Amino acid sequence: MPFPAKGVTERMKVIACYKWVLDEADLKVDAKSRALLTDRAKYKISEYDRNAIECGVQLVEQVGGEVIALTAGTSNAKNSIKDALSRGPAQAVLVKDELMGQADSAVTAKVLAGAIRKIGAYDIIVCGEGSSDEYSQQVGIRLGQLLEIPVISFVNKVEMKNNVLRAERKLENGIEVVEVNLPAIITVLPDINEARIPSLKQILAASKKPVQELTVADCGLSNADLEPKVHRLSVLGAVMERKQVRIEGDVSEMVQQVANIIKKEVSC
Amino acid sequence: MNFSLTEEQRLIQATAREFAQTHVAPIAAEIDRNHRFPEELIPKLAELNLLGVPYPEEWGGAGADNLAYVLVIEELAKVCGTTSVIVSAHTSLGTWPIYKFGTEEQKKKYVPKLASGEWLGAFALTEPSAGTDAAAGQTTAVLDGDEWVLNGSKIFITNGGYANVYIVMAMTDPSQGTKGISAFIVEKDAPGLSIGEKERKMGIRGSSTTPLYFNDCRIPKENLLGDLGKGFKIAMQTLDGGRIGIAAQALGIAQGALDASIKFAKERVQFGKPIATKQAIQWMLADMETRIQAARLLVYRAAWNESNGLPYTVEAATAKLFAAETASYVTNRAVQIHGGYGYTENYPVERAMRDAKITEIYEGTSEVQRMVISGNLLR
User: Fold this and answer.
1) Which of A99, A131, A156, B119 could form a disulfide with B164 if both were Cys (CB 3.0 to 4.6 A apart)?
2) Which among A18, A37, A16, A20 has a CA at the least distance from the CA of A28?
3) What is the pLDDT of residues A156-185, one digit of tens each?
């Protein structure tokens, strides 16, 4: 069913959502308690969200317009703004609240939806398919429900033609090509593009771009709206037990032993 | 005191790291093996403004500071000594003298091309019989009408054959000693300039190191850089800044070798356990880390001084001396931790150990740095 082209702006306006997450490369696991040690971990823009920003920037390079980078987080998320802006968006919007530290996907979507309503008219919202830290793959879809606009997920390729967005969805069994009238949300896979490395001039120019800071109240929400329905009880490092099987003998014996082990493992 | 990088410096570091991992690391071993200058990297470096980090935007540069420049060199050197010295020699030695001492016309003609990375720069001081004793150079420059005529030769010129512009020191008045040396801007296609064969070196093998031959080489009169007779001073001041770049290169080589050693020590199993569980290895890693941290503080401090208009000659010498000796120490230990594997070309620490050695030699040997440091103490 075609959706009405409501809210379409004169110059295309793309909102690229991103999450400021702990860099998993810096995470260490305490050997005894399996607790994650994050005291020396740095933050970064979630990997797929970099592709989301890049997708927005490439779309406006193609048809004109501007990208607004949008994030919601604790005060720590403020440190993400220059990074995001160095990747091409013309401006950034940050919704800041310490309660965002406990936000689940539903809360994040509510806050982003509130911020987007505050921003006003838009054409396309781009999200990463999932975040590097939790990868719940829910925010984009929930956002579509809240804003009552269509969502195209698993997007691998995208192009604009006559105000219609055509996207390829990479599904398990093949590629689905869909078209949608704007406004719409797309959630993108990392294959969609290679996020560009910001140049030094782009980094230094980022501090001159406009940044809007919003509170939860600015987004029409109260603290009660930020109460998550999912409560994280613990996060522990995964332990992979090695079986340390040593295979000896001549080649044919060793091959047979490996085959036996595989058969046994598969049948378990 | 504030030991934190600014947000911009952290982002610049991240850009350099990503560039190094994406574009440099995959070819680092190959360019070393084949003694191949990585020409394909130059436009990519230029695109990210990595060939003019500390120069203002209006002059074609990135508009960042010297600490940001040092961070860039360090990140490149972590994966490739060659690439880091191409950038360092171009930025500190090939571009800076024109930016600092050039006339408005010279600056307008050359700096935007160099700082944007459209052109590469190089610096020519060393001669076959004038290394540390740089004042013993025999290359001459004689004014003939509207042209300077250069005769003589230079050796060990980094970026030789690939540079578009060479800063050349030549004797204009032999009776005046160091005060008879002047600096010149020589374009690569100046008549009478020829480039010799590339040296086959122990390390930084992808970097082009060549002799330059001047045989009645004619350049316009206006290509005298700075005042007549001030060439030695220009060269020494240029090397002060250059040393910070080489110190950053040494720091990066050391850090890259430590990173590789930590990874190897965790993976390599002997006697049923990773060798990282052995105190012998742990202590080596601790000593490597400690020296690297100390070197980093010296290098960043020297760059910070330069950016803030403070004296940095001694700081640069101290940083280069310690960082270079740290690079040699750390890469030597890194090969030891890797054992027999570390002695093969299959692991990057072998290349790092060869690359490290040059940092104790070029842009002033460690002995020259000690002369500079002690000279300041005893004056």
Assistant:
1) B119
2) A37
3) 999 998 889 999 999 999 999 999 999 999
- Residue B375 — φ and ψ, nearest 5°? -60, -40
* Dihedral (CA of B127, B133, B138, B144) sign: positive
Residues on chain B bordering chain A, Cβ-to-Cβ distance under 8 angstroms: 7-8, 11-12, 14-15, 18-19, 22, 47-50, 53, 57, 62-64, 68
A4-8, B81-85, B125-129: range with highest mean pLDDT? B81-85
Angle at B158 (CA atoms; ends B153, B164), nearest 5 degrees: 80
Query: Coil, strand or helix: which one is B20?
Result: helix
Domain assignment present for A142: yes
Contact in structure between A12 and A56 (CB atoms under 8 Å): no
State which residues of chain A have pLDDT below 50.
Answer: 1-7
- The domain in which residue A213 lies consists of 12-226
Number of domains forming the structure of chain A: 1
- What's the residue count for chain B? 379
As annotated, the active-site residues of B are 363
| Inter-chain touch B12–A200, beta carbons under 8 Å | yes
Residue B170 has φ and ψ, to the nearest 5°, of: -145, 150
What secondary structure, in 3-state letters, does A31-74 show?
Answer: CCCCEEECCCCCEEECHHHHHHHHHHHHHHHHHCCEEEEEEEEC
This model of the complex carries an ipTM of 0.94
**Structural domain contains residue A264:** no
Q: What is the pLDDT of residue B200?
A: 97
In a domain, A263, yes or no: no
In a domain, residue A4? The reply is no
